[in-house]
Specification:
Length: 96
Amino acid sequence: MDTILPSEVKTRLASGEKLIIVDVREDEEVAQGMIPGAVHIPLGQLPERMNDFPKAEEVILVCRSGNRSGRALAFLEAQGVSGLKNMTGGMLEWED
């Protein structure tokens, strides 16, 4: 599984890089804040929202701790999606 650290994402965003980030947390979690510019597709909705999923060379998946985004990565890879990275530590580490 390809991973990326929250600090790496922050550095790349701060340098002006346009990243494609998909937040797979639930609505109530996202309401508490999310990474600016991220797309919200809850984990449970991924199967029916595959057409909404960004097609890009690199997509960073985010959740609270890195668990659900890891499951999202495994599911999406099984559907033939490539270029995925799981943000380890999730939003728990983003906020620190």
